[in-house]
Design goal:
The complex is a heterodimer of chains A (108) and B (120). Chain A has 108 residues and is mainly beta. Chain A has strands at 9-12, 18-23, 33-37, 44-47, 61-66, 69-74, 83-91, 96-99, 103-107. Helices cover 0% and strands 45% of the residues of chain A. By secondary structure, chain B is mainly beta. The mean pLDDT of chain B is 96. In chain B, a hairpin with a 4-residue loop joins strand 5 and strand 6. Helices cover 0% and strands 50% of the residues of chain B. Classes of the chains: A mainly beta (108), B mainly beta (120).
Chain lengths: 108, 120
Amino acid sequence: SYVLTQPPSVAVAPGQTARITCRADNLGDTNVHWYQQKPGQAPLMILYYDSDRPSGIPDRFSGSNSGNTATLTIIRAEAGDEADYYCQVYHNRGEEWVFGGGTKLTVL
Amino acid sequence: QITLKESGPMLVKPTQTLTLTCTISGFSLTTNGVGVGWIRQPPGKALEWLALIYWDGDERYSSSLKTRLTITKDSSGNQVVLTLTDMDPVDTGTYYCAHSPLNPRAFDVWGQGTVVTVSP
């Protein structure tokens, strides 16, 4: 089965830039979507097609995807950005939707 | 406004079958390009996709759970039902349904989730 690998945790100081990676073989050949999940809440899609933002998502959130790595970048990190972040792809070969293991972002 | 709401039992016993209903509003599963998926999350763990059904009745299942899962939709396109057989304590978690367009193949609106505990 297709596996997306994320670091378990990332820490960032307020106002600084956080980068959360998602890795898999040839990941750049597919579209990656990102979700934010705060404690006790349902996930919220924050990026789709690697870097597009749904309505209402601040432009502090951006994404890229190339080679074997997709990256979610959060600039000017705020306390309210503390959450778990998940990447997700549709794996064509297996016809399955796959989530990464999630990354807990801590804003110190 | 698209909304989804999950409903079902909070507690099931091992070996029983879990039946969950997702009631949708703001869209219809009779509309081209529309899908509804189910995703679950064990306590403190990652999201896991389970199943998805499209407007045309096309069903997709997680390969690891395929033998235990069934997803259906009602003829009105307003409800999606997920059944998971032979429940085990490891199936404990929060179960979400979510709106999933054909493009992108993502989950752009989620329900609030329903907590299911498997215990004797």
